[in-house]
Every structure is written in C-alpha cells, then in structure tokens.
Amino acid sequence: MKLKDLGFQYVNSDESIQEGHLFGRVILPHKHMYRVQTEHGVYVTELTGTFRFEATENRDYPTVGDWVEVNPWPNEKKGSIVRVLPRWSQFSRKVAGAETEEQIVAANINTVLLVMSLNQDFNISRLERYLLLAWESGATPVIVLSKADLCDDIETKIQDVERMALGVRIIVTSLQNNQGIDAILELTKDQQTLALLGSSGAGKSSLINACLGKDVQVTQDIRQEDARGRHTTTHRELLMLPTGGMLIDTPGMRELQLWQAGEGLEKSFADINVFEENCQFRDCTHTSEPGCAVLKAINDGLLEEERLRHYEKYQKELAFLERKQDKRLQQKQTAENKKRAKFLRNHKK
User: Fold this and answer.
1) What are phi and psi of 320, to 5 degrees?
2) Tens of pLDDT along 149-193?
3) Known binder of ligand: residue 292?
4) What pTM did the predictor assign?
5) Domains plus CATH for the chain?
C-alpha cells in the first residue's frame, strides 16, 4: 500500500519527516493507543512523553483520519506517535455535557455524509444542525436519505430537505432495492475519504457494509415503537474500500452541540444573508426596523418566518458558546502557566 492510497496527496506536500520515521494515518483510536496504517502495514502506537506533556486539550490528540509521524520500534509493528500533521478538514462538536471543549469526530475528510432515515425518526431540525457543523468542517456535505423502502412520501421529504439545505446534494438510498450505493461509491474516487454521521438507527453501518460488499460492521434492528436505533457502532474507525477510497464510521450522536459554526451558519442560511445585504441598517435585527429586507421577504412569501427563527436561535447559541470559550481560555492559560512553572522548578532541582 502506498501513501497515495490513503489520501496523502491531500496533505501539504512540504511536510518533512525525520529519518527512520514513517507517515501513517490513524484508522482506529483507542483510549491510550492508536492503530496507524502505514506503507509498511498497521502499527499499534502510543504517544511520546513529550507529546502528552505538550497536549493541553482534546483537539491536540490524534483522532480517526489524522495523519501522524510515527517512530517505529525495532523488529515489531509498534511505535510512538511524534506529532499530528496539520488537519485540512475536521468535523467538530462541543463535547457532551456541561464542559466547554471541542471534540473532533473525524479529520482530513473530503465529504461528510449526513445520514437521515426516511422513517418515523426523520427530523429536519436535527439534520439542519448536522449541516451547520458539516459546512464548518471544510469538507463537502452530502445528505443521504436512507431506508427509502420504508417511506410512502419520499418526494415530500426531499422537498423539505431541499428547502432547508440549499444547493446540497441529496442521495436517496434503499438497501432493499440496492439504490444509491453506486452514487456513494462515486464520491470515493481519487482516494477520497468519506465520513458517515447521523443518529443511531439511521443505517450508517448497513450502508458501510453495502459499500464494502460484505458484513464488516454489526447492525441492529431499530425499536418498533419510535423507529429509533440502538448504538451499534461504539467507536470511530477508518475503513478501506476495495474499489479505492475510505469510509469513516462513527457512533450515532443524539446530542449534537455546536462548536465554532460561523461559516457554517453563513452557508446554511445563505438565503437570509442575501436578503440581509439589502436591509436599510447594517445592524438590523430583523424585528421591527424600517427598511428591513428580511421582514419584507417574509411578508412577500419569499422566506419562511420559521427559517428566520432558526437562524436567530443558532446565533444566540453560538454567542453564548463564545462567551463560555473566552472564560475557559483564561482558565486554560492560567493552568498552563502553573504547569510550566512547576516543570521549571523541578528541572532546576
């Protein structure tokens, strides 16, 4: 296997490497260990002491899809990760719970497949939130509407998605009818990497099995009472396709809190941004100002009022998150200063 087969051509070509070290890609992160695919096979790796000392938050650690520099150990398929190469795309969310910290779900991805099932669990608001973070990731979002054979009003749901996800490609799939799989595989040409994201029961593992042509990922039936799924995938893993290209499978995420999504908000609500440019006042709040082009568009039937409400909700959520991030940054800087001061004191001894 060559590095090109793993998508290395998308990495900055100026990256240098220490003699005797290897470039590789993280295919399966564990708590303290990482499986890394290299030109010379898979290495089980750990982080160097220096790496662990300098890492101060979640985003500093390797994640699935990352390119890393590995120092191989003699005569065995093990080694140490020296550094993580700069990421050129990443899908991030705020970690679950009250803590204000970023969790990078997958890195160095060309396309984010947002998987939503066409059964009772179909939720346009949840899909809208996924799309915000997908645009922010730097990858291209594609919406996959799965389980089409379970839906009686496919066209209506497609129209709902099209109104929300302006200009985003939509692929409808049905494993019963072998529908849509070729369209997904087409996205993996030129050794591109796709990440599948969606809630439990959306059918991500089944789609991956169909793309691989064999049952690799375990699947489970959904609950009959609400069509929601059980957690089948419990870890994130990069899988090589026999036709070339890679797929990243991820556990279902019911809690999807925003992280940084300024650009994602702008792209997801591009229609509102177009109207905003024609408002009489640059700081228009779209509530009662004279000459508000957004309110005029709503009155003229060119924009749904509910869409504006969603836009405002995300703005408030991001503003609140930014205030929490600023406070956490101050606390982090204080902790780092204490850590380094302690290190210097012990070093002098």
Assistant:
1) -65, -45
2) 988 899 999 999 999 998 999 999 999 888 999 999 999 988 999
3) yes
4) 0.81
5) 3-84 (2.40.50.140), 90-249 (3.40.50.300), 269-344 (1.10.40.50)
